[in-house]
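Lab channel / #folding
Pinned by the channel admin:
"Please post every new chain as: sequence first, then the structure tokens as a reply. Keep commentary short and put observations after the output so the thread stays searchable."

First post following the new format, from NK:
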Amino acid sequence: MRMITVDEDRRVTREQGLMLQAVGCVVTNSQATYVSGPITTGNRFSAWYASTGRNFVMGSQEYLLRLTSDVIQPNEKAIHRVASAIRERSSVPVIEPASLAVPDWSQQEYLSFWLRIIQKFVSTIVLVSGWEFSVGCATEFRCASRLGLPILDELGNCVGSQQGEALITAAATRIEQIAEGAAPLIQLAQVLRNHRI
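Reply from TO:
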């Protein structure tokens, strides 16, 4: 794992601060609905990696191209679909993570930013189907639970803290079942089980 330098950390903190100000120009505190869905991982990634992704050298150009076409783009479409449906039936601002691309941000930097958005601007979280297979979504769920925010699935059903944790645990178990020794999947399952914000 590459260590982040102090200068990189300052740049990211500044970028995030400016983006938060921009969001604050449109959304008042605790007013928005946030759509949480997997982008780079999730159930789609686990199934893809178990069947296809393990055949490529992780990080290679071919791996990244297939990950983008087979996992990231379909995941982003699912998030956009849910966000569009909410926008059609509500006048509340909807924030979704699939439309933001910041060159050089790590997954941790994205997650840090979205957690700050949730804490400052969000009144309700909507979980895209399969969210429980994503470390980012699980972290966003846990943040929203701690804040006492209403959490809904994409069909509008409430997802309580215990129910959500049970779904995360079941997802980790399912990932372990299909891992067949694949280190990235085993690590994903472990992080889902053990990660807390």
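NK: The chain is about 60% helix and 10% strand.
TO: also worth noting, Residues 137 and 188 are 13 Å apart (CA to CA).
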